[in-house]
Design a protein that fits this description.
Blueprint lengths: L2 E5 L2 E3 L5 E8 L7 E7 L6 E6 L7 E2 L7 E6 L4 E6 L8 E9 L2 E4 L3 E5 L2
Parallel strand pairs: 2-11
Antiparallel strand pairs: 1-3, 3-8, 4-5, 4-9, 5-6, 7-8, 9-10, 9-11
Length: about 120
């Protein structure tokens, strides 16, 4: 069955870094665009970054541009989000999504807490 499993979340101090990973299985990963989202308590889910199947370009929300970097490894069926210069307002549940046309899959999310 389709699975997207995020890992790498945790507690980090302001200014610190974290690397999130999303491991995919059960579908042809290389043909799907991959995205990272986050949702903070009481707020709408926010699209942070997207990388298409061919990984020829990347797109970022203004809120994370220059601080976060998305990458994918089609050989390992993983997509990563390198996060740096973290701020308390980055605290949220981070989720990955696979999308191809009208088909999409979601992971369960991983908590990221930025606090001193």
């Amino acid at each position: 069955q389709v699975q997207l499993v995020e890992s790498g979340g945790g507690l980090v101090q302001p200014g610190g870094s974290l690397r999130l990973s999303c491991a995919a299985s059960g579908f042809t990963f290389s043909t799907y665009g991959m995205s990272w989202f986050r949702q903070a308590p009481g707020k709408a889910r926010e699209l942070l970054a997207h990388i298409p199947s061919g990984a020829h370009t990347t797109n970022y929300a203004d809120s994370v541009k220059g601080r976060f970097a998305i990458s994918r490894d089609n050989a390992k069926n993983t997509v990563n989000l390198q996060m740096s210069s973290l701020k308390p307002k980055d605290t949220a549940v981070y989720s990955c999504r696979a999308v191809r046309g009208s088909s999409s899959y979601w992971g369960q999310g991983t908590q990221v807490t930025v606090s001193s």
